[in-house]
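We examine the record.
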Amino acid sequence: MARVAVLGAGSWGTAFAQIAADAGNDVVIWGRDEVIVDAITNEHVNPAFHPGLKLPTSVWASTNIATVLRGADIIVLALPSQVLRSRLIEWRDHFPANAIILSLIKGLELGTSLRITEIVHEVTGIDRDLIGVLSGPNLAREIMQRQPAACVVAFPDSAIAAQVQVACATKYFRLYTNADVLGVELGGAAKNVIALAVGMASGMGLGDNAVASLITRGLAEIVRLGVSLGADPLSFSGLAGVGDLVVTCMSPLSRNRSFGELIGRGLSVAEAVAATKQTAEGVASSKSILDLARRYGIEMPITDCVERIIHEGASPREMIIELMSRGPRSESSL
């Protein structure tokens, strides 16, 4: 049994806390909202994100980061990507030596385009072997209902990946291991941008042919970027690639798809943010990923269109026309 500290009392952080507790670990959640923290500890429910779904009675929560991190064997990061750096700077002195750091975050940092594991190492100085990522098709609501799901956990050190795999195994949640941290992490971040595009197409009333085309060509963009950065192309055909891409693009439970739908129906970005109330990581990551692609000279036309719609006020309909008007090319070139 391990002591697992989950930093973040949002939708996915809460669901992962349930997984860790069901796997037999001692689990505590850090949250900033006293009401949510009290409800988790005393009523075993997160009323803001999973009303009506009970957590294991062993799970508790606190707003005190020192209390949460004390004695932690595995520290799970479940915060919005854009606030992570400031939180790590504030908390790094409380991290126990040799604790394993596991990121659930699917985004890149604005301004630097750094992946989450890179930020953790840069800010804390923790050994890269101890920093990994969990990704894949993991809609939090379904996991809270204990519906079957499979994901992948990636660490540079295969022994640590296997340790986390065993620590998080339950009858409804299955983990596979992977050594390609870059590929797994990049796939999890980039698919959110494609899901925004799919949501926009759906919100505009476009059909399944358009959706399938966006998903397929979106995957090509992700693979093109990942391989150029040194990722294993096979990672993108696995759970953190195709698996996560499909569920995020197709499920009504996907916050990025839902956000995109609102934009496609004519809402402004500010109106969509107010309506969804949860972080759609693809909104910020569209700019971060496009900046990264431009830095390496990688063409990502769908990502480019999403970034221009979200950050520059371009029209979704005009972007669809632009995508369809691009010059002819071979599919085999990705």
